[in-house]
Structures
1.
Amino acid sequence: MGQAYFITGTGTDIGKTIVTSALYLSLQALGKSVTIFKPFQTGINEENHTYPDISWFEQELGVKESGFYTLEPETSPHLAIKLTGSLIDEKKVVERVHELEEMYDIVLVEGAGGLAVPLIERTEGFYMTADFIRDCGMPVLFVSTSGLGAIHDVVTTHSYAQVHDINVKTILYNHYRAENRIHQDNIETIEKLTGLNGLACIPTLADVRKDLRICILDLLGDQEYTQQLKEVFEA
Ligand SMILES: Nc1ncnc2c1ncn2[C@@H]1O[C@H](COP(=O)(O)OP(=O)(O)OP(=O)(O)O)[C@@H](O)[C@H]1O
Ligand SMILES: C[C@H](N)[C@H](N)CCCCCC(=O)O
C-alpha cells in the first residue's frame, strides 16, 4: 500500500507542475513506483484544446490517466463547476486517490492554485482543498517562489495549514538564484519562522522540456537532497 502526498503552491502559477515533475523523476530514479494525479484541472488551452498540466504529465513524463475532473474556465474550481453546471462527486476523487495508492508506492497529487482554494460550492458550504487533503489523509508539500514576497506567502500558507491540522512535510523553492541575497535569506528566514526545511531549489529553466532532466541529475548528485527526499517520502 502506497501513500499519496499533496503538492500545493503559495498561489497560482508558482510552478507546482514543474516541481511535481521534478519530484516524480527524482523518486523514479530512486527506484520507486510513482504516479501523478491532478484531480481538478481548470483552464483549457484554447489553441490546441488540451489541459496543460495533464498533457504535460502524460506527454512529457508518460504518466497514465493523470486527470479526473477537467473544466474549461480558467478560474477557481468552484467557479468553473458553477459556470459549466458540472456534476462533481468528491467521494469519487478520494476513491481514485486510494486506488492509486494500491497501485503505486507514491502518488503525487497536484492541487489547483494554493491551499485555501475552494473546490466545490454547495448550499451547505464549501468543500475546500483542506477538506480533500483530510479526506485522503495526505501529508502536504509546499512549493514557493524564491524572491521578494515569498516570506509572507509561505508564512501565511503555513499558518492556514496549522489551523486546519495539515501535516506539512517540506517546501521546495522554484525560480531560485543561488547568488541572490534575498533568495538565500528567504530560505533561512522561512525556516526560522515556520520550521520548514527546504528540500530543493529549482532554477528558472531556459527550456523546461530539455533542461528539467538535467536539473534532476544535478539534484540527484547532491547527497543531502537524496537523503532528505527519502526521509520526506519515507522511501
Ligand atoms: N523553474 C521554471 N523554469 C521555467 N519555467 C517555469 C519554471 N517553473 C514554472 N515555469 C513555467 O511557469 C508557468 C506556470 O508554472 P506551473 O504550471 O508549474 O504552475 P502551477 O503552480 O502548476 O499553476 P496552477 O496554479 O495553474 O496549477 C508554466 O508555463 C511553466 O512552464
Ligand atoms: C486557473 C489556474 N491556472 C488554476 N488552475 C486555478 C487557480 C485557482 C485560484 C483561486 C484563487 O486562489 O483565487
Note: DSSP finds nine helices and nine strands in the chain.
2.
Amino acid sequence: MPPRPRRRVRPAGPASCSPSAGASHDPPTGQGAAARTSCGARRCAAGPAGRAHPQLSRQLDRCECRPCIAGSRGRGRPATALSDRRRRRRADARRGQRCLAAGRAAYGGGEAALGRPAAVPVTSRRAMSAIQPSFLADDLPDGFAYRPGLISAAEEGDLVAGFARLDLKPFEFQGYLGNRRVVTFGLRYDFQAGALQQAAPIPDFLLPLRERAAGFAGLPPAALPHVLVTEYAPGAAIGWHRDRPVFGDVIGISFVSPCRFRLRRRAGARWQRAAVLLEPRSAYLLRGEARTVWEHSIPAGEALRYSVTFRSLKRPEG
Ligand SMILES: O=C(O)CCC(=O)C(=O)O
Ligand SMILES: [Fe+2]
C-alpha cells in the first residue's frame, strides 16, 4: 500500500482553522492544548494566537471551521488525501450484510432485544454512560419530539440492506472530509453555491419511510423534498450545528445502534444543555426553538449507526 499522504497543513489567515475544534472538535494529537472559546468549541492551539473559532458566525448558523462542519474530531482529511475509498466501497456490500447483526449485537444484540423499542440493553458500563439520556421531560427543548419504534425490525433490516447499495461518500466541506458518509436525494444543499440544487430522485425504497416520517411530523410526504442518508462508522461524529436555514422541519430516523443526541443553547455566558438517547427505529423532530435556537450534535459512538434525515423547506416569511 502506498504511504498515506500527509495531512494538509492549515493555510494561514482568518478563513481557516486548523483541524481541531469542539467536543467533536479536539485538536489532533501533538497540536497542544486547546482552550474553550465562545462557541463552546476549542481554541485552535495551532491557529492564530488566541483567536477563537474564526468562522463561527451567528448569521451562518454554525461554526464554518472546516473540521467542525465535517464533525471530524480533528481527524478530518483533505479530499485529495483519500486513499482508501476504493477499498471501502468493496467492503460496503459485505458490511451491508453484516452491519445490522453486528450493530445490534454491540448494544445488546439479538432479535429479542429488537422487539423492545424503549429499553436499550447495552453491553458495557462505558457504552451505557455514553448513551444514557440525561434530560427530564421538562428539559426538552420546545419543538423537539421523539417517537420510539417508528418502524419495525423487519422494515429496519430492509432499509439497512438498501443503504448498503447506496453510493455513500465521505461528508465533504471545503476540501475536508468527515468520518461519516452521506448521500442526498431530492434537493441538496450546495455549500459552495449556498443554495439548494436538484439531486437524484428519492429512491423508491425510501418513499414508505418518508410517508412514515411525514405522518410523525403531521406533514404531507411531498412537504419533505430532501433526504439525507448518513452512515456513522464506529468513531464517527457530527459536531455542534444548526441545520441550514433554507430548511424547515427536520425529522431524523435512527438505524442499527443507538446514539446520544445532544442539544445546547446559549443561556447568558453559559450553555443550557440536554441530551436524549436515540434508539434504533426511532424518530425525532426538530421544529420551532429546537430547530432554530438550539444546536445539536452526536458524539462518536462505538457501533455503526445509520440515520435518514428528511427536511421540509422553510416557508417564505409572510
Ligand atoms: O444523524 C442524525 O440523526 C443527525 C444528523 C444531523 O444532525 C445532520 O445531518 O444535520
Ligand atoms: Fe443536524
Note: Residues 1-83 form one domain.
3.
Amino acid sequence: MDDAARTELASLRKSIDNIDAALVHLLAERFKCTQSVGRLKAATGMAPSDPERERVQIARLRALAEEAELDPAFAEKFLTFIVAEVIHHHEQIAGQTPHAE
Ligand SMILES: O=C(O)C(=O)C[C@]1(C(=O)O)C=C[C@@H](O)C=C1
C-alpha cells in the first residue's frame, strides 16, 4: 500500500469510528426510551410486543432506507434485531412488575 492509500484509509477509518460512536450513543438513547416504555407497559398490563406498531415502523424505515440509498432489507433486519432485544427487556421488566390492571 502506498502512502496516499494509507492516508486515505486512516482518514476513512476516523470517520467510521465517529459514525460507530454516534450509533452507540443513539442506541443508548433509544434503549433508555424503550426501558421507560417497558415499565409503562408492565405497570398497565400491556403486552410486551405490538405487531401493528412494528409493521408501521418497518414500512417507514424501508421507505427512509430507499431514499437514503441503504438496502431496505438490511434496514428491516436491523430494526427487527433491535426490537427483538427490546421485547426481551419488556418481558424481563413485566416479570418483575405487579400489574396495575
Ligand atoms: O412502541 C412500543 O410499543 C414498544 O414497545 C417499542 C418497540 C420498539 O422498540 O420500537 C418494541 C416493541 C414493540 O413490539 C414495538 C415497538
Note: Residues 3-95 form a domain with the Chorismate Mutase Domain, subunit A fold (CATH 1.20.59.10).
